């Protein structure tokens, strides 16, 4: 009877060398699926996202200088208000720049409204993502009394302006308004500092280094026509990487675990059965 039980056990778990059997077939499938998920997610991510290092402090406190970000490759037509985009415009610089979109074609962007806030089509924006500086603080430093993050700490721009954005263009500002060379620095040029949508080639979706965090879409733009953009597939890609890694580890561990358990059973005294 003991021989029958041992034979049945080997039929399920495989031979003495740890190969064969339903369990080992399933573990092999798990490893194969895990590799597909793991490598596939990395390839998918490389096709969809591009890493950038932000060299300046113009997007503080959202993005600090030296931060590594992941930007989703998109067409300029997909840009919405509130997006942090990567673009290249020869009138600004020969290098890629990172700014936030505050106005799209047809919008009237003005600063400053009541309470020192930015307005888009007459709607005052609550901008918790910017570094506010009270009038009189030193431009370019972002320091001094009355400086901080959040709303209610001064004007959203120390340069008053009112711009109607041409169709097909974008009005862009840095989050550190006191130290950002953005659309306000090009108000006297054609297009009043706006940039063509076609100049945009990516949208920042997440911070990757030294901290890891998704970039939230500002709710203040949600009530405007067109709303805000949706996050890219980064969370799904990360989930696929983790699931793939787990399947590979569990599948690869199955054989050694079965062999260790099998040796333990063979060492049991005959009377223990």
Automatic annotation (TrEMBL):
UniProt keywords (A-Z) are: Hydrolase, Membrane, Protease, Transmembrane, Transmembrane helix
Keyword tRNA-binding annotated: no
**One Gene Ontology molecular-function label:** serine-type endopeptidase activity
> Where found, per UniProt?
Cell membrane; Membrane
Concerning Pfam families, the annotation shows: Peptidase_S26
Assigned GO CC terms = plasma membrane
Q: Give the active-site positions.
A: 58, 99
Q: Report which reactions are catalysed by this protein.
A: Cleavage of hydrophobic, N-terminal signal or leader sequences from secreted and periplasmic proteins
Domain Peptidase S26: where?
34-209
- Signal sequence interval, chain numbering: none
Q: Does the keyword Transmembrane apply?
A: yes
Please give the biological process terms from Gene Ontology that the record holds: signal peptide processing
Q: Which residues cross the membrane?
A: 25-49, 238-257
Q: What class of enzyme is it?
A: hydrolase
Kindly give the membrane topology term recorded for this protein: Single-pass type II membrane protein
Could you tell me the EC number(s) of this protein?
3.4.21.89
Name the family. Answer: Belongs to the peptidase S26 family.
Name the PANTHER family for this protein: CHLOROPLAST PROCESSING PEPTIDASE, SIGNAL PEPTIDASE I
Mind telling me what this protein is named? Signal peptidase I
Q: State the species of origin.
A: Streptomyces sp. R33
List the gene name: lepB
């Amino acid at each position: 009877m003991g021989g029958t039980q041992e034979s049945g056990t080997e039929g399920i778990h495989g031979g003495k060398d740890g190969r064969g059997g339903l369990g080992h077939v399933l573990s092999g499938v798990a490893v194969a699926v895990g590799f597909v998920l793991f490598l596939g997610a990395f390839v998918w991510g490389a096709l969809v996202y591009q890493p950038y290092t932000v060299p300046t402090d113009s997007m503080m406190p959202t993005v600090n200088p030296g931060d590594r970000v992941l930007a989703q490759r998109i067409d300029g037509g997909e840009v919405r208000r509130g997006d942090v985009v990567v673009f290249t415009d020869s009138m600004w610089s020969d290098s890629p720049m990172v700014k936030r979109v505050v106005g799209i074609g047809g919008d009237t962007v003005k600063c400053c409204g009541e309470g020192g806030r930015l307005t888009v089509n007459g709607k005052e924006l609550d901008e918790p993502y910017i570094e506010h500086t009270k009038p009189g603080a030193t431009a370019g430093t972002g320091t001094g009394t009355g400086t901080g993050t959040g709303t209610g700490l001064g004007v959203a721009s120390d340069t008053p302006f009112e711009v109607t954005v041409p169709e097909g263009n974008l009005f862009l500002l840095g989050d550190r308004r006191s130290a950002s060379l953005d659309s306000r620095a090009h108000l006297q040029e054609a297009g009043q500092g706006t940039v063509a949508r076609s100049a945009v080639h990516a949208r920042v979706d997440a911070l990757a280094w030294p901290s890891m965090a998704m970039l939230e879409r500002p709710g203040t733009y949600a009530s405007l026509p067109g709303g805000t953009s949706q996050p890219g597939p980064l969370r799904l890609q990360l989930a696929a990487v983790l699931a793939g890694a787990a399947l590979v580890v569990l599948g690869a561990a199955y054989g050694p675990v079965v062999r260790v358990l099998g040796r333990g059973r063979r060492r049991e005294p005959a009377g223990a059965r």
